[in-house]
# Entry
Amino acid sequence: MERISQRDESALAELYDRYAGMLTSVLNRIMRDAQAAEEILQDVFYQLWRAPERFDASRGSLPAWLVVICRNRAISRLRKKNPAAGDELVDDMVPLRFHLETEVSQQQMLGRVRGALESLPGEQRAAVELAYFEGMTHSEIAARTGDPLGTVKTRLRTAIQTLKRTLNA
Amino acid sequence: MSAHPSREEDFDLYALGALDADECGPFGEHLAACPECAAKLTEAKGRIALLAFAAASVAPASGAKQRLMARIDADAAAAQLPAKASVRSEERGVGFSGWWAAALVPATAVLAIATVVLWQEKNDLDKQIAALRNSVTTEQEQLSNSTKLANLIGSSDTVTVNLAQRPGMPKGVAHVMYNMKMKMLMYDGELEAAPAGKSYQLWVVPMNGNPVSAGVFQPVPGQTDHWMMAMPEGLVPKAFAVTIEPAGGMAQPTGPEVLLGAAS
# Structure
């Protein structure tokens, strides 16, 4: 990031090589539209280039920050298609206990997260995916799946407990 | 200040955005006044961010990086011109006074028009330069890929694995070439179109542990699918397989094997 602050384009290119795959995957999953996903990815990297001081390395992890920004923007864009949907989400620093700076570390984390999700019962996993990739609240998930609100809340809460335990292990 | 959330997972649910407005509001008010809970929420955001890895792996679009770099180049070039124009006009302005200024109004207007025309021409040139740079970068990437492919094919350490069609599965033929020293893997094959709503997915089956995805693809009949990728670090392949999976791919194989080949 220091090199980007010094207007070193090769540093931005390196950063792109390192994280574009990870971010493209999540953007495509949310948007289900490759062109829209690329637009968001381009905007995020472009804005990172224009204002690198927005990222504070002392307070957070760059890959986690980029993931949060991309997810927030993608969901925000999806929600604009739905007039009844909520507000813009806020971009802020996100610390991370894990390193995601290399392709290997990203592959390892990928295996770990997918393993954790696959260990969940199908309904719990589906609820987590609707919340994360479609930005749905408890009520919205209940409306989508036709399940009682209380059931959805219990599923998500139990899923979060399991994921937290697995990912913190 | 309202009470702390009663359950630890409330922080993760809040970070996930799953809480409804009636739950979110009081929580948000509490967070604004409680540094301890704000810190827990920040930690939860990090955990929730990891769910991004649940998405099936998709590579960035071809040329996306070049488009980003061209945008940045064009931006930098556009930013330089007004700055220079401004410096020059300030230099010329020294010593101007009285009727000279009035006499020069028409000339200034002409200069302004000329500046706009020149600026537009410069912008057009910037765009052409950016397009050319984009094209050169793409060609350099293609050349680099061709060199990597030639090195992979030419290396005595490269292992070729023929993937055989499994009985009753869609027709196809493919092979994988991999090189543990170069840490490279190349897939080359032809397959019938995937069933509706499905994709094919290539897997590296390691000696130990679970299969690792090496690409999700949708063949076009009559065309060859071909790609290279880095071998995941430390992975020793036992076999390679192509399976039918839900469109977009899965984290682990769930569908039938279409092609299979043992690594020697």
About this structure: Residues 24 and 170 of chain B are 51 Å apart (CA to CA). The radius of gyration of chain B is 30 Å. The helical segments of chain B are 9-16, 21-33, 35-49, 64-93, 98-103, 105-154. Chain B has three domains: 9-54, 64-154, 159-262.
